[in-house]
Specification:
binds zinc ion, 17% strand, Aminopeptidase, alpha/beta, single chain, 352 residues
Length: 352
């Protein structure tokens, strides 16, 4: 029997490799240690490698693992960046933030230890931690059946709902972020989660002196297999039109806007500084198949054995978020590195 998870999807190992690559590169390192442990008892942390001057007016921030299990792909990109990225141009720094949801990486879940989708957890201070899109109540029985994984006609029921209501309202209903179903998919939590709060605090402390900010957050599971989309979540003048075109940025989120998404935190912190926020998606499975994988893994966690990593539902989620295909991984790294090169060029070339 081969070991599971495989080495490239083992949090403790990929974390060690990231840290080793950052040290070999001579990066400054910060680690934000978090509560909780991985399945092997390993500590969990958000690790941050800083390349270039400590105080730089232009900052490019590259993040991985906001959605836990998706972070193995982002980690591959970041380790390659540490090897191949040239020194940042004068006045520019590059920051690689590894594993924003390390618990989810370690336990092969998209969400964190409180079932929170961290890309729905960045509500403003004093924000309203309640509510759900109107369609969510209708979708809850389909998305979140309170029973262990089993075949129950998901695809037929989903297709029927799609035919009846259309993709856009359903996508918004499913993925827009909800705060009322703590065991449900796309749950945003009821307070800032430790890793989201720690990262926000860390970034805030580094922003004095920064005049221009570009951010990239790496995800997987949306779009066509082996392709990448660079979704421009916020266009705020840190990149000019030519740089945006070179980087192939596409406008906004494709089918829905999420409450509490990380882009909102970046906008609050940046204030009136020029800011561009990019979300890179590396496509794997078709939408419904992806949703089904998320749903079955969620059932396994809540209604079967939550500790069991090698359950078929958990394996399937890993396959959906981080395909074992070498070709897929090569393409993911290629797209990931190319985007950063383009954005860095654009940021360095922008008028100050
Ligand atoms: Zn994601």
């Amino acid at each position: 029997m081969e070991a599971f998870p495989p080495a490239e999807a083992c949090y403790a190992r990929v974390r060690r490799r990231f840290l080793a690559a950052a040290r070999a590169r001579g990066a400054r390192l910060d680690s934000l240690t978090l509560p909780g442990r991985g399945p092997g008892g390993e500590a969990l942390a958000v690790d941050i490698a800083w390349l270039g001057p400590a105080r730089a007016p232009r900052l490019l921030v590259h993040t991985s693992g906001l959605h836990g299990v998706e972070g193995f792909a982002g980690s591959l990109v970041q380790r390659r960046l540490l090897e191949v990225l040239p020194e940042p141009p004068p006045g520019t720094a590059v920051v690689l933030v590894h594993g924003l949801n390390p618990w989810g990486m370690a336990w092969l879940r998209r969400v964190n230890e409180h079932n929170v989708d961290l890309n729905r957890n960045f509500l403003p201070r004093g924000g309203d931690w309640s509510g759900a899109p109107p369609a969510y109540a209708l979708l809850d029985p389909l998305l979140n059946p309170p029973s262990p994984p089993r075949a129950d006609g998901f695809y037929l029921r989903a297709l029927w709902l799609l035919a009846r209501h259309g993709l856009r309202p359903l996508a918004q209903g499913v993925a827009g972020g909800q705060y009322d179903y703590p065991r449900g998919l796309f749950y945003g939590g009821h307070r800032p989660e430790p890793s989201a709060a720690a990262y926000t605090h860390w970034l805030e402390s580094r922003l004095p002196g920064v005049e221009r900010l570009v951010t990239v957050d790496v995800h997987t599971g949306l779009g066509r297999w082996g392709r990448a989309m660079a979704l421009h979540e916020h266009t705020g003048g840190a990149l000019d039109a030519a740089a945006r075109a070179r980087a192939g940025l596409q406008p906004g989120a494709p089918a829905y806007t999420a409450r509490g998404a990380m882009v909102h935190m970046y906008r609050r912190l940046a204030g009136d500084r020029p800011l561009d926020v990019v979300l890179q998606e590396h496509g794997t499975w078709p939408l419904l198949r992806m949703l089904h994988a998320l749903r079955e893994e969620n059932r396994q966690y809540h209604y079967d054995d939550p500790q069991r990593l090698d359950h078929p539902a958990r394996r399937r989620l890993l396959a959906a978020a981080f395909p074992a295909s070498r070709r897929w991984r090569r393409r993911c790294v290629h797209h990931g590195v190319t985007l950063v090169r383009h954005l860095l060029e654009g940021l360095a070339g922008s008028e100050s």
